[in-house]
Amino acid sequence: MSKLEIDAKVENLDRVNDFFADNLMGCPMKLLMQIDLVVEEIFVNIAHYAYKDAVGKAWITCELDKENNILTLVFEDEGMQFDPLAKEDPDITASAEEREIGGLGIFLTKKLMDDVSYEYRDGKNILTLAKKL
Prior knowledge:
There is one protein chain. By secondary structure, the protein is an alpha+beta fold. The protein has three helices and five strands. The protein is 32% helix and 29% strand.
């Protein structure tokens, strides 16, 4: 298990991506691309919204369970409480003009990962993502 503590700023996205690339060396390219997309969505949302105008921390954990072939990613922040899973999935059958703005990133995350869960514990938002390899 590897853990990264980083300032939740969009400028740090490359460092976050490097963290996952280092931890997932040897994984199939398709998986790496899916993880890249999910990581960008989650980290950028934390950077933009968790701390309003202030800069706070994000803690990111990557665990690759080779015995059970499961990848687990955990994103934590101490920003304002927000459950990204509480909002209904967007109506992807509606045209872009008819759809509300936002929500597609979390929708895509739920589709790409096998399990996504949220909890608020000890003053932290904790989003856990799991993918069967």
